[in-house]
Amino acid sequence: MLPRLIKHEDIFRGKIYSVALPFTNGRPLNFVVEDDTHKGLYKIIKKDDGFEGKVDKETGIRKSEQLKIVTGIKLRPCIVIQKDEYNHNPKYPLVAILPIATLSDKQKERPLFQRMVSHNDVDSFYYLGNDCYITINDPQRVFKNVLFEIDYKLNYNESDVDMQEIMKKFAKCFEIKRIVECDTCKHNCENCEYKKVVNA
Fold first, then answer.
1. Contacts of 47 (CB under 8 A, 6+ apart)
2. DSSP 83
3. Sign of dihedral through CA atoms 82, 85, 87, 92?
4. First vs last Cα of the chain: how many Å apart?
5. What pLDDT shows up at residue 166?
6. CA distance 178 to 194
7. Element (H or E) spanning 148, and its range?
């Protein structure tokens, strides 16, 4: 069954869709490089450490002009967190989503994920049940035309999702992020409006 593209008027906050996202397989990573022996041709190589080029002194980002990383596209479930006034607006092309993932066997052994499953009180995750969870602190803005509706059996029901609890956790994660950014700010403004609010 081919996926059905979602129209903007059918995108609703709190609803679960499939989203087409780029992904890179785990390390070693695949890269495309020019073939030294065959001019104008390319080959795929594997490297453990990603880009091994020069470090930009201003940004500290390591760049490589020769390497181009190979990514693919896969459909994965997500939940829309954007207000419907933007979802339904044809002039607004983007939609904010939170990805939904499945617990791996390795994750199940970690205390953090065990806590998530048993109490569902970890700020950065929301447990849906049946080994499915939402990553709260990884919001993404994607184009509406990469949302799809697919007919397959989900391990959770949309009716079981507490959108209010998800947004509370989202706000808390965002607040923590803002505080950290503010504390590491080079300006350290004494009259910073954000610091006034936080420290009130």
1. 28, 29, 31, 67
2. -
3. negative
4. 55
5. 87
6. 9
7. strand 147-149
Tokens of 118: 């048993």
Tens digit of each residue's pLDDT (9 = 90 or more) over 21-62: 888 777 788 888 888 888 888 888 888 766 667 777 777 777
Between CA 6 and CA 133, with CA 98 as vertex, the angle to 5 degrees is 115
Q: Which residues of the chain have pLDDT under 50?
A: 1, 198, 200
List of residues 6+ apart from 173 with CB closer than 8 A: 123, 124, 136, 137
Q: What is the dihedral of CA 88, 78, 96, 107, to 10 degrees?
A: 170
pLDDT for the residue 114: 94
CB 77, CB 101: distance < 8 Å: no
Which SS3 state, helix, strand or coil, does residue 7 take? Answer: coil
DSSP alpha helix (H) spans, the chain: 84-87, 105-108, 111-119, 163-183, 193-199
Structure confidence at residue 198 (pLDDT): 47
Q: Hey, what are 195's tokens?
A: 């610091």
